[in-house]
Amino acid sequence: MLSRSTISRNAPRALQKQCSAVNGRGMASAATGLQYDVSESAGVKIANREIAGPTGTLALVAKAGPRYQPFPGFSDALEQFAFKTTLKRSALRITREVELLGGEIASSHSRENVVLKAKFLERDLPYFAELLAEVASQSKFAAHELNEVVIKLLKYKQQALSANPECQAVDAAHAVAFHRGLGEAITPSTSVPFEKYLSAEALAEFAQQAYAKPNIALVGSGPKNADLSKWVGEFFKDLPSAGSSSQYKLQPNTASKYHGGEQRIASKTGNAVVIAFPGSSAFGGSSYKPEASVLATLLGGQSTIKWTPGFSLLSKATQGFSQLRASAKNHAYSDAGLFTITLSGKADQVATGSKTAVDILKKIAAGEVASEDIKKATAAAKFQALESAQSLSTGLEATGSALVSGGKPYQIGEVAQSIDSVTEAQVKDAAKSLLSSKASVAAVGDLFQLPYGEDLGLTV
Amino acid sequence: MSAPSLASYIAKRPMLKRWMMPIANWYTDAAGYRKLGLRADDLIPEESETVQKALKRLPPKEAYDRVFRIRRAFQCSISHSLLPAAEQVKPEEDVEYLSPIIRAIEKEAAERADLDNLVVKR
């Protein structure tokens, strides 16, 4: 075992060394290898980063999430219909072929996008490029697949959602904050009659619009630029450049407007309170405010280090509550954002916890916060931003989304710089402006105990 | 699903088919199911997984009409009567509505069996 004196002697020195190394390296070298090269092939926008390695990832990001869906449940169904039977081959054959090649295919959707993702060995790029093109342009949308597979899966998803009060509360907060558009539920809740809108023909028409050339972007990580643009040019050239105009077309892209308000949902599954304010959009959006992400890490809630609450104000304040989970997050979208404080757990602890959270926000606004904490929060925010851009699970969608909605990819270096330049005063001003604006409060669970927004001292 | 048959052998040869068609048409008419208001696909035995699945995949209107035809034929059978000529199924109405779905399901099953018994050579 190391003696205590050794650690105390060496620790500061090690720390010093690390800091100087970071300063010396600067941003430039950290950002290379992360930056996407943007090009266009056969009318499809492509962002790619070449990474030397044996595997590659290719994602198709379509601007067809719930924000743009014509009727409830369409984005979910479109996501589930990915890699199902196409005009050329059956769903089973696709699955078995991918198994044989040793790849991974997945589909997901967020509030704004539907993402089809394929991970594969380097040499299989042509196969997977063709597969994504086939799914986008030649999916069959068979009625029996809708009834036998897709609707059943959708119902399971709904049940999972209704068993999760935290997700329900976040959805409800979005609904009161943005009404339509971003306010649409990410998956329709169990009481939404989505079946009456859903049919195979309707989905086929929606898909034609959703996967039209101007509405998608391809994001690659791993393959060579030349290879990717060659194969995309070959396979994606048959994609329609505009869908047929029908009643199942995408919702027009209207700018999001923040409304605010309160929603309370009785539920037996658990308790959650979400306190939300207008936040920061994604980088490149009109309302991008780096201080919102710093404020989110300053409030924090979830420690990044084991066995300690960490520096974040929420986790320090809720240390005494054994059955409470608190976290703050800035949900960033292409043209708006929602800054949320989420609390879930036992009803009485959620009630007191939410009061504490608002008190902390008021303290930050009044400037009663150590400048050291803000520095730590800035570092954490920068780490989170860079990490999410680097990791495949979040970075691909962010890049694709930026490309489809703005035509400009995520600039990692600039994001880091803008977070670095956030000052203490900016964070305090951000907190002040949050408190002065209308809040969106959503409570799910035992409503007898959960507080109203007014009880928390918020203007709803 | 079916007994061994020469149908496909004959259908492939136009000359032979031309000779056989009148006989086939006479035979189908003589079978008498059209006089009870049924179509040929209504006679397919239901007691198999494939056909059960195909029946589930029928569009709602087709499924309703099928049940209607079968019940009407049942009533005719009980009362030992035939439908009036106007209500009997005409040859041009006697089209396949279930067989294409059954063939699709059989193709799916065959594909699954093929893929399950696949030998990979690298």
From TrEMBL, chain A:
GO terms for cellular component: mitochondrial inner membrane. The lineage of its organism: Eukaryota, Fungi, Dikarya, Ascomycota, Pezizomycotina. Its main location: mitochondrion. It is a peripheral membrane protein. Pfam families: Peptidase_M16, Peptidase_M16_C. The keyword DNA repair does not apply. Residues 53-180 form the Peptidase M16 N-terminal domain. It is found in: Mitochondrion inner membrane. It comes from the Eukaryota. Belongs to the peptidase M16 family. UQCRC2/QCR2 subfamily. GO terms for molecular function: metal ion binding. This is Cytochrome b-c1 complex subunit 2, mitochondrial. Keywords: Electron transport, Membrane, Mitochondrion, Mitochondrion inner membrane, Respiratory chain, Transit peptide, Transport. Residues 198-377 form the Peptidase M16 C-terminal domain. PANTHER family: CYTOCHROME B-C1 COMPLEX SUBUNIT 2, MITOCHONDRIAL, METALLOPROTEASE.
UniProtKB/TrEMBL annotation, chain B:
InterPro entries: QCR7, QCR7_sf. One of its GO terms (biological process) is mitochondrial electron transport, ubiquinol to cytochrome c. Gene3D superfamilies: Cytochrome b-c1 complex subunit 7. It is a peripheral membrane protein. SUPFAM superfamilies: 14 kDa protein of cytochrome bc1 complex (Ubiquinol-cytochrome c reductase). The keyword Electron transport applies. One of its GO terms (cellular component) is mitochondrial inner membrane. It is found in: Mitochondrion inner membrane. It holds the Pfam family UCR_14kD. Its main location: mitochondrion. Keywords: Electron transport, Membrane, Mitochondrion, Mitochondrion inner membrane, Respiratory chain, Transport. Component of the ubiquinol-cytochrome c oxidoreductase, a multisubunit transmembrane complex that is part of the mitochondrial electron transport chain which drives oxidative phosphorylation. Belongs to the UQCRB/QCR7 family. This is Cytochrome b-c1 complex subunit 7.
